[in-house]
Amino acid sequence: QVQLVESGGGLVQPGGSLMLSCAASGFNYSSRSMSWVRQAPGKGLEWVSGINVGHKTYYADFAEGRFTISRDNNKGTLHLQMTTLEPEDTALYYCSTWGHDLWGQGTQITVSS
């Protein structure tokens, strides 16, 4: 069964950190570039970060310097280390293939004091 399963979301205070994980299964993960996408309440989808099969990383301007994407091809996992979180980072975070043909169910991050 092809699936992406995110974990690691939760409630965090402004300035805090959180690590998101995504477990991939059912497809050749190591041959696929991957990304994180988020959707804030009442807003559309927003690309956050991506990583290609060669581990080259890409970030949206708002994520540069605060978020770090990584992957473990042996374990079939994707991670997003998030630091210095702001209330504006509150959103449902999705793991997705680069071409967005596969999506996880999302994990909620709420940044609030």
Characterization of this structure:
- This protein is mostly beta strands and 113 residues long.
- Helices cover 0% and strands 50% of the residues.
Instruction: Flag low-confidence runs.
Output: none
Task: Summarize model confidence as the mean pLDDT.
Answer: 97
Strands in their spatial order, largest beta sheet: 2-10-9-4-5-6
Rg for CA atoms? 13 Å
Short description:
The protein is mainly beta. It has strands at residues 3-7, 10-12, 18-25, 34-39, 45-51, 57-59, 67-72, 77-82, 91-97, 107-111.
What attributes does this structure have?
113 residues, mainly beta, 6-stranded mixed β-sheet, 4-stranded antiparallel β-sheet, 10 strands, 0% helix, globular
Fold blueprint:
Blueprint (H helix, E strand, L loop, with lengths): L2 E5 L2 E3 L5 E8 L8 E6 L5 E7 L5 E3 L7 E6 L4 E6 L8 E7 L9 E5 L2
